[in-house]
Design a protein that fits this description.
CATH architecture of the largest domain: Orthogonal Bundle
CATH superfamily of the largest domain: Farnesyl Diphosphate Synthase
Number of domains: 2
Largest sheet: none
Low-confidence stretches: none
Strand content: under 5%
Length: 283
């Protein structure tokens, strides 16, 4: 059996992400391991998000990825999982972070509505925080930094949910905006199919941005707390981009078009954030 039968590639790639993936800021010897992890995460995300594929089939494919990380024979397993297992064995990083990601994407096949902020944060603890935790572990950083990491990663996830709220609903009938918050504004989830946001939806979006900005306030010192200078600058760039996207989402309507940065603007904002932390570390 060919290994790639487990994948449902979307065509998305690292260059299309909101934030830098294994950029030149990261130590050269670690970049290949980060790319292996990214390709694994991209593959399982694509499985969970594939339109028109039965939930049971998605779970079967995701279980195959998890089995390889759990130690099953890799001969017929997904290629991206086999590659990641090799990376984990070479670096000594615990597979728990990658397996938590799988749990998140299995949850995506089972759950399409959220009740409140706490429920959304519980999802982010599986779908976002493990990415940063894996990167910290790969760099040999102190696990005490997981608290700040989780705040930043959770913020990034909510930003992504807001950017994609219309597409998630239209393509997958998946809504991360808390349903009772919509109901309190007299709205149903079908408002996400509209061409633009009515005032009630705008208030829901802003309420989620309030929570996201609270997370970013908690992660603001994260970059300066990391020992590895190059990783510190990468985190600083990501923090700056997250804060910039929050501000942009305040001003623009994600139902009208996807709210994001152009590549030049992304580079400028990220470099400004990294430069500020570089100066702070030198002081």
């Amino acid at each position: 059996m060919a290994a790639d039968v487990f994948e449902l590639p979307s065509g998305k790639h690292a260059g299309g992400e909101n934030f830098p993936v294994a950029s030149r800021l990261v130590r050269a010897e670690l970049r290949p391991h980060l790319m292996v992890f990214y390709r694994f995460a991209r593959a399982i995300d694509d499985v969970a998000d594939a339109p028109g594929v039965a939930a049971a089939d998605k779970r079967r494919r995701l279980a195959a990825f998890d089995a390889v990380l759990a130690g099953a024979a890799a001969d017929d397993g997904p290629e991206k999982a086999v590659a990641l297992r090799g990376s984990l064995e070479a670096t000594g990083v615990d597979p728990v972070h990658a397996r938590d990601l799988i749990r998140a994407f299995v949850l995506d096949t089972e759950k399409t509505r959220y009740a409140d902020w706490d429920e959304l944060m519980a999802y982010c603890r599986l779908s976002a925080a493990p990415v940063g935790r894996h990167i910290l572990a790969l760099h040999g950083e102190d696990p005490a930094l997981f608290v700040a990491n989780d705040a930043l990663c959770d913020a990034l996830q909510v930003i992504n949910h807001l950017q994609d709220c219309a597409d998630d609903y239209r393509a997958l009938d998946r809504v991360y905006l808390p349903e009772p918050w919509l109901a309190a504004e007299g709205l149903g989830v079908d408002v996400l199919a509209a061409a633009s946001s009515p005032p009630g939806l705008r208030r829901v979006l802003d309420r989620l941005l309030d929570g996201t900005e609270g997370l970013l306030a908690r992660s603001r010192s994260f970059a300066c707390e990391v020992k590895d200078t190059r990783l510190s600058l990468e985190i600083a760039a990501i923090q700056a981009l997250a804060e910039g996207l929050c501000a942009k989402l305040r001003r623009e309507d994600p139902l009208t078009r996807r709210v994001t940065f152009s590549k030049p603007r992304m580079a400028l904002v990220g470099l400004a954030g990294a430069a500020a932390v570089w100066r702070a570390r030198r002081r």
